[in-house]
Amino acid sequence: MGTNNELVRKKIDELWDEEKLFLKTLGSFPSTLGNEKEVQEFIYHYLQDMGMETESVAVDPERLRDYENFGEPDWSYEDRPVVVGEWKSTGPKKGKSLILQSHMDVVSAGPEDQWDTNPYAPVIKDGKMYGRGLLDMKGGFAAIVFAVKALRNAGVELGADLQIQSVIEEECTGNGALALLDQGYTADGALIPEPTNLRLLHSQVGVMWLQVKVKGAGAHVERAESAQNAIMKAQKLMDSLMAYREHINSQPKHPDFEHHPHPLNVNVGKVEGGDWASSVPTECTFDARVGFYPGTDPETIQKEVKQWLLDAAKEDEWLKESTPEITFFGFSAPGYTISNEEEIMKEIGSSHNNVTGKQAENLAFTATTDLRAFGEFDIPATCYGPIGANMHAPNEYIELDSLKTMTNVIADFILRWCEEK
């Protein structure tokens, strides 16, 4: 491994300006849910131009429905591919095969007037690059692409196959990652460079989405006393979810999260209701996200949350008779854990130490990632990625020094895991 290490680092240095430009380009695509086609086409051709064997795969939810990690979609998959580029080794296999995976979907940038700069025109200020999705997680994708590019430019020949995967729907179902695994794009290990502040992820919570629809009885506001305001009734159920949040965090904690002050988050993220200021609204719908510990079946949490909301509805005279409609969609994601004794954890830790001179810290993550899909396929996998701030918020940024560090770490790790011929 040592023969090429210095040369690879030199190539990463030579490619650094190109890597930053590549990340700026990725950040210029507003690849929110349903709008991923253009960035995926760009990546397809970019990997192809690197000399990788590239395929674009359509996501078919009917093929995926029986997987534990399937998330129920409420939208179409037309023109929303997942992409894989393969660097196949020749001759006898020496090391272990590897998947490097990133998601290209980003959350909405709105409201854009809260940004200091255009969220889809990335800018660099004080060593940070600002833009929607640059931290979560287009920066990680730039790192894996340029780690591989540096290795190839250095003339390295790997002893095992390597894949770069670019997927969709990490932010809502995980079906993109599942689609490639279902098509046989598997390996002996996987790394997802989600933003972990250069820490190794060893545990993450499960996540579930639900929608609650409340019906009221409308009227002109002058007769409001005879009406039932659906928005105000929905507020009672939102309040009950906040009580549920405190309830689950007051229970004994999972060992991986016992030092975290508030590991399980519940969020009401979207509310729709009413259509006229002088009319009492007859319907209100809200979407919510619920976290739960690894080792818990998502169906168990669905039943628990549904019963919690129905019990809260019984405390209101109107809701007791007009039962709220509760449905589950999007994430139905179990938690995920990986032992620190797994070889992939040790090897990435060694690479981190080799590049930074420091021991890698561990991370128990209070959200979800696509790691769980690899768990279903018995592929050891972890996350290790850059430093930054404001994910899912205005003025998201990535610290460029951390991007360069992790590009070096990933290149070092590839040499350890796949080995040289």
Automatic annotation (TrEMBL):
InterPro entries associated with the record: ArgE/DapE, Bact_exopeptidase_dim_dom, Peptidase_M20, Peptidase_M20_dimer, Peptidase_M20A, YodQ-like
Highest taxon of the lineage: Bacteria
Cited Pfam families: M20_dimer, Peptidase_M20
Keyword vocabulary terms for this entry: Cobalt, Hydrolase, Metal-binding, Zinc
Reported cofactor(s): Co(2+); Zn(2+)
GO terms assigned for molecular function: hydrolase activity; metal ion binding
Peptidase M20 dimerisation domain ranges (all copies): 204-316
NCBIfam families documented for this protein: DapE-ArgE, PRK06837.1
UniProt record similarity statement: Belongs to the peptidase M20A family.
Protein name: Acetylornithine deacetylase
